[in-house]
Design brief:
This protein is an alpha+beta fold.
Amino acid sequence: MLSLPFDWPALRFKLRQWAREHDQVVPQAGEINLARMRILTPLLCGLSALSTLVFAFRLLLLESSGASRDWLFGLLWAHLAMGLLMLVFMGLTHHLRHDARRLAGRLLPLAWLVTELVYATVLACIDQWVTPNITPFVLGCMLAGLLLHLRPRESAMLFALAAGGFMAGIGLTQAQPDNLLSNRVNGVCACLLGLTLSVLLWRKFAVITLQQRALEKANQALQTKQRELERLTRVDGLTALLNRATFVELTRNELARARRQGTPTTLLLLDLDHFKQVNDTWGHPAGDEVLRHVAALCAGTVRSTDLVGRLGGEEFIILLPATRPEAGRVLAEKLRLRIQNTPAQVQGRPLGICVSIGLASTAPDAEASFDTLYAAADQALYQAKQWGRNRVV
């Protein structure tokens, strides 16, 4: 059996993969092209205007007629036309500066390159009246391949048309067969080189763009996980309330602020009554559901400025900034009644819950620390348990 020199199925697969990747970066390429055109178009307009002035001045000084005068007239009109067209492109790029994804925004760079290559072809053809070189066309092909991003199929069509136009146009002004053949061969080579540059730069742009997107996506995922980890280190995993360490840290900051501003602070310490019986009777999953239920009731009863945390087990703690003992007791009673009157749903059945609450407050001018306030609330909670539970002390 004869073996193929290339793995054509693999090549076709790779080309289809590249085509899909290229489709993904087309919008961004359009934005970059318009941004570059907003810089390059005024520059080309200025160069065309300067060239027009130079050749107009040279015509004024030229006394003879013939090929030289025709050459100067041709260059003068070519540069003048290019300058006017660049003015038109300046207006179009300014109009589409905020909407590069529209069809006009995607076609404008292609039209701009067509104009640039036609300009280079006309200059090279006009130069044939005085010199056989085609430097303007070679430079035009190089710039067309370097300045803007075009998809390979668009670039191939562009340079194919440029090669055909150049070969036809150069035959109108170059009469020497040898020079004509050399220029046509060199022109085709310039188009192939420009196409190669365009394809290589497009592929590099596509790879870098997709890598940047993948990196940004990975960074966003990493930041999301990092925020989630930070949240998990500050909240209780079961109830989503503040954990003990975070609650103590925030409470100490709040007590320091209260001392500076001379405002009272109240602390509530809650303990579920007979919670061990829930675990023993219904199991620990049921106990976890009860804890989540009480946590939601606590968070939904207090103000948004209050701090709610879980100390561990069946103990919860609430800090009420700028709250006097009387107001704190009113809220504690409200919370106790709400927990008492809102049974938890355990295995499809309502389960009544009661809670004992110990309350302690600092005076506006007191220097109480968290440990002092917590110890006072804990003592009050102990008394609530001793005096029959389901009460505020």
